[in-house]
Amino acid sequence: MKAETVYSFGGGSADGDAGMKNLLGGKGANLAEMVQLGIPVPPGFTITTEVCNWFNDHDQSYPKSLDGSVRKALAAVEAELGLKFGDSTRPLLVSVRSGARASMPGMMETVLNVGLNDATCEGLIAESGDARFVYDAQRRLMQMYSDVVMEKAAGIKPAEGEGIRAQLEHELEKLKEKRGVTDDTDLSADDLEALVVTYRAKVREVLGKEFPEDPWEQLWGAITAVFLSWNGKRAIAYRRIEGLPDEWGTAVNVQAMVFGNLSEDSATGVAFTRNPATGENAFYGEWLPQAQGEDVVAGIRTPNPLNSHSRTEYSGDLPSLDDVHPAPYRELDEIQRSLEKHYRDMLDIEFTIQSGRLWMLQCRIGKRNGPAAVRMAAEMEQSGQVSAAEAVMRVSPSQLDELLHPIVDPEAEKMATLLVSGLPAGPGGASGRVVFTADDAVEWATRGEQVVLVREETNPEDVAGMRAAVAILTARGGMTSHAALVARGWGMCCIVGAGELEIDAPARRFSVGDHTVAEGDLVTLNGTAGKVYAGELPLRETDVSSEYLSYFLSLCDRHRELKVRTNADTPADAQRALEFGAEGIGLFRIEHMFYGEGSEEPLFHLRKMIMAGSREERQAALDELYPHMKDDIRETLRAMAGLPVTIRLMDPPLHEFIPHEPKGQAQLAEALGIDGTELARRAEQLRETNPMMGHRGVRLGITYPEITELQAKAILIAAAELQAEGIAALPEIMVPLTATEAEFTHQEKIVRRVAGDVEAAQGCKLDYLVGTMIEIPRATLMAGKIAETAEFFSYGTNDLTQMTFGFSRDDSGGFLPEYVEQEILPADPFATLDAGVGELISIGIERGRATRPDLKIGICGEHGGDPASVAFCHAAGMDYVSCSPFRVPIARLAAAQAVLNG
Amino acid sequence: MKAETVYSFGGGSADGDAGMKNLLGGKGANLAEMVQLGIPVPPGFTITTEVCNWFNDHDQSYPKSLDGSVRKALAAVEAELGLKFGDSTRPLLVSVRSGARASMPGMMETVLNVGLNDATCEGLIAESGDARFVYDAQRRLMQMYSDVVMEKAAGIKPAEGEGIRAQLEHELEKLKEKRGVTDDTDLSADDLEALVVTYRAKVREVLGKEFPEDPWEQLWGAITAVFLSWNGKRAIAYRRIEGLPDEWGTAVNVQAMVFGNLSEDSATGVAFTRNPATGENAFYGEWLPQAQGEDVVAGIRTPNPLNSHSRTEYSGDLPSLDDVHPAPYRELDEIQRSLEKHYRDMLDIEFTIQSGRLWMLQCRIGKRNGPAAVRMAAEMEQSGQVSAAEAVMRVSPSQLDELLHPIVDPEAEKMATLLVSGLPAGPGGASGRVVFTADDAVEWATRGEQVVLVREETNPEDVAGMRAAVAILTARGGMTSHAALVARGWGMCCIVGAGELEIDAPARRFSVGDHTVAEGDLVTLNGTAGKVYAGELPLRETDVSSEYLSYFLSLCDRHRELKVRTNADTPADAQRALEFGAEGIGLFRIEHMFYGEGSEEPLFHLRKMIMAGSREERQAALDELYPHMKDDIRETLRAMAGLPVTIRLMDPPLHEFIPHEPKGQAQLAEALGIDGTELARRAEQLRETNPMMGHRGVRLGITYPEITELQAKAILIAAAELQAEGIAALPEIMVPLTATEAEFTHQEKIVRRVAGDVEAAQGCKLDYLVGTMIEIPRATLMAGKIAETAEFFSYGTNDLTQMTFGFSRDDSGGFLPEYVEQEILPADPFATLDAGVGELISIGIERGRATRPDLKIGICGEHGGDPASVAFCHAAGMDYVSCSPFRVPIARLAAAQAVLNG
Description:
Shape of chain A: elongated
Largest interface: A-B, 47 and 47 residues
Oligomer: homodimer
Strand content of chain A: 15-25%
Helix content of chain A: 40-55%
Strand order of the largest sheet of chain A: 15-25-24-17-18-19-20-16
Number of strands of chain A: 34
Mean pLDDT of chain A: 92
Distance between the termini of chain A: 31 Å
Structural class of chain A: alpha/beta
């Protein structure tokens, strides 16, 4: 551990700076930086994250030197402000806050007003002249401290609703009832003084000990409670979800209290240097008169707009800060400008105005949703504020994903029943069944339901439920409330502050006017507009014409080295993927034509082929199938004119195409004019115990070379026909499931022979490749041999992951979630490429390229659209990734970031 | 190519010797060797195998120099014998025979009596004074030559039964009918002279050209026919089965004819320097008076015994050679002794006595069956004739396997209906359905039937059918007939020369006396005794107490480095394996106790556990299961006292233990006292699409740690109980299906904890290991990590092969045979370790040992008993192989040979 355990800030100088986040946490580092910039910050000090780790490694004790360092730092604060901690005349009060390397909003503990006791109260009353404010501060301290320090940190686990905080709040409610008032603010100073006495007795009664009067005992209790909360249940759960390491630890920030709730010329607020929901370059924020910062974040009161930019339909005619407090606002505006310039990024700042004087309490890189991230990156690059490379790094793949989320179909929306409006806190559309508790959200989601979590307001205890939901709707809170912050971070559809909602959680229903929605009813949210509709509305993919998006993606394209293709089976998919920037098709599954709309006729011929009793019958059925197949392939090749199209030969086992129930079999038998029992017998013969490892892929092509021949003919004649029209067709014919070089050459010979025939017959020269999917572990080992004839490899990482792990995708649901939960695996290997699978991929690339240095190599499994996996593919030296059309932009970004992270 | 294309032998000197098999073929090299040893051999010369390859590479033409070399070599033969090829007074006749590096009995062509034409006939008649003999020789030449050279080698493919040979034989039959005789020998010289004229006309009519009179044309035609036959259908099929490479080519041996059929003091025979069926050290053979060698091999006449050792119940009182021709016999006996001493191995020799003079026509290492091979190896080593290492290399694993074949249960045999007796040509017992053609044998076998192929006699066209059968029964032929030779080579049950059989092949039945057996009827053969029984008799494993076997295996043990364990699930299996020399158990499958006899009660508890609705119910069922499991394990540990026993934790998916049909489910529901629909629902829930890659192995142990705990407890308490009895128990607890190190450590922790508990409770120190099966490709890559905690690896090569190839064992029957057939794979990878799987194994060993140099490594898949795979395991550095009890001796031999092949 470093010698220094405490870093001071204040009075124009600071021990730390913004570069020291690992040691001081984000909050502490940025407070120090602001002080260094000459910005008004209440003085204080930061106890380092190393102390947190020491604390956890040493049985929750502290290094010996810490006490002295804290006293020294506190003395500096006292000197700076001319106050004294625990002094009965000019008492110093402090806040004790957590601050980890990354923001973990609301996941750890905070204690305010530390240092208040009967003696210092008197001093503070004398100084402020406002006894009501002081007793209110004292009862707030008691509520917070008895809960956080005396109960939670002591490991006491009261029954639901019987915690000390709830019991004290109950006393407050009783008092308000007795006085016949509804607002705290209507209680008098005497009422609150009496309440403090009641609280003291209640604490003694419930927790069996006195509320500490010693300010130093309060301070150390608070510091310890914050350190302990690093390993609290909520914080651990949050770290799991966000993938943050336990070893980081939290710092503790002890800072002189300033009071936004002191007098009429006091206020508090939260702001962003640009609009975090749209990216617009305008100072944006919310404030509350005579309030503490916690009141804004907690979303208890609907906040006022900071300025005209920040005004929404919900802020109505609430006064803006620039109107009410013009001087501090001007100062604030200057500070935010200089901060953004200094940090070269959009910032999230917290401020308090105490009796007309502005104090900055926090500044950090501001969270933003996807559209805002893209717009900011594009505009900051355009203005020269950041380089193109920096701009590319400013948008995370999941943020970009938000832009690509479905939206509520606008036509359907026009006709829909609007239930309620709220703040558009998370973009996109979502439909789901209403649930009223986080636990219910988790439970319903586990059994496969899409749920919308509806809450008065959310709090950190709700995180798991919020994660499980497809959307969040709250009745209270603003754009910086807990629900809004969390949803924005996750790119999740979210509407907050829908004040007309009357939620009856115990009865599991809510009503708006005379409309009642019960648990399980369907609702649809338009998170971009903040509208909630009854029932399930159709969703539509977003239209990605945004100028910012295309500009941003052009920045990505400037850096990336990987090509990005798409997995597409139809001209429509191909067209959409082209709009998303696809540079070809990496996977066209030839069997798609036997599924879904329009598949009746080709499927019938295929079935006839499967049921054929002889090679001749099979050939006749294939001949009937041929024109369908050729036309189908040709139209996708046409849509991708001039770009490569990888066409995979038939992959599924034949039994997939035969009905399994007796009725379907009987119908098919009749249609084919064959005996029903014969058909059933043949279907039974085709049945497999482990179809994933059965008679499929290239194995079909070896048993039935005429099927390969048909496909080769359909592809190559389609290409020849387009060529005759003057359209460049670049088919890449892909043999699936190859395990040995002989399998591949067997098929390759057929394709080459057919190609020679087609070229001779049509008098043309075709531009095509023959290669193979690498999806069998053995193929990666034999890649050197296979590459002797294969012109390209495309990694089928779905199957490769299955075989490498021996995990059936269809069946692993029975244990895989538990594997991730128990950290037996770091992630679902079907979502993010596993290290073992990755090693096989690398072996295959190395051996393949050793034989054929210009071997074209790509990936066409689901992983092709997963950013971490794209980074792997770049590092492994692939030529391209291929993914679903909607993942193409993500892959373009991930490929660029892979280069920049290089 | 070497400059020399022709190697001469004769007159006491030879260009070649026995070391030149690759160039001269086996026959040519040994003829040269015999000449060099001063043994009487008809002079001749060998055209090398390189000429064969040249011939095939050059459009079936010959190198220019060949003609001159052949003329020169033939001139030397003429000089040696004082004869002249094509001369009308003292004509030289020659045989033209194939001779590859390895013996390919009957697979290539032979032409005898080359050089006979009308002119040389006259000379030969004058010289021999036996016109009948000469015309008979001429008509034999014409039959053979017109078939082999003029028809087959010319590529003419006549309809079935319309080949020239059949048509000429038909003329012979017609003539015999006309003369009212049944034997060829009853035809007169005039008859045969006329027949030659008829033949000449028939050849002209059928083949459209003259039978060649030019001896040189005859000679080159015959040489070319032999070279062509290397790539004939039969020869290719035989090489496939035997795994011989096409590149070897055949040599051609041209040798002066000697005639065993010339006069009354002429004879011919085949002999072995030791008994090839028993290994007994006694000169053994068969002969025919006034016959050619072909007559013995073809099995047309039942041969006479060579001497008293060779007399069997079938040779009755036929005269022996030592009685009839004592002088040549004595000479022959001396020659065979000197030859065996020279070659230091048992030899197969062919001889002809022409007019009282002995000629050796062939000598080669004699084929022998398994029991004979073992006895000879043991006795030759004991007598100092060969070293221990040589003795070990003298027995092939498949020969050893013969000793371990089942035999007909002797008790059942006593009561059975004997149909017929014959010569015991291939040992062991076999039961199967009777078929009458090779094609039927293949077809029936393909659909899973065990068939016994019943034929008058077999010929090389029948090879595929013989291979497909479980046993062969012929009505004619001796111990050196085609059927006997082939069956012996394959270690197959075979009875030949069962002369009482009346076979009606077209009607698909045979009769013996008044007993008729139709196609599809079951028969049982005792190949060791030569007895055929009606119906299916029980077979019994052989009793391997033979002194020769145990001595031979002790020689193996002296050389091998691999330990050999067994896969055994019961004390009985363990006991048997110990008798076979097993040094521990490599795979004890804990789930065996839920299958078969005595499994009702444990299976019921297991099912109760599977259907349990809560952890508590599950635990209760496990508690009931515990004593069964513990006792079961203890008794196998007891049987293996002092030897390691690898116990694999539960591997199969749970649905394997639940009935799948409604009736079974209803019964189970009633027995368990739960609702039938609930049970069906749960069974359906457990069902998997690809169970091989589903919820099984270690995955079960992670989901249900209590199951692992139960097993650990049962194993370790069983060990503790034995320890208390003073019996050393060495369990090695094996976690199946590990893919990640975290899976393993999860289970290992449970086992260690239970072990600690048991040791504490019982006050003992247990001697156990915890390790894992390596059967998932990923595990081989992660072996370095896994070995951090795993104390041993056991390769489960069945599953590893499945996953590495993506071949489901259950389903690959649909394509795998075709893969081997089409040479897409060199062998069934489930029988012999594949190179790709082998690479993964090696990676795993290397990485595992890098972490833990003393990591114990073995194999427990089916491959552990496959000799080629055992050699791989040795080379890869494993510590042991484990295989089924009956494969243990094979593995001991293969392990020793792996060292010696070094």
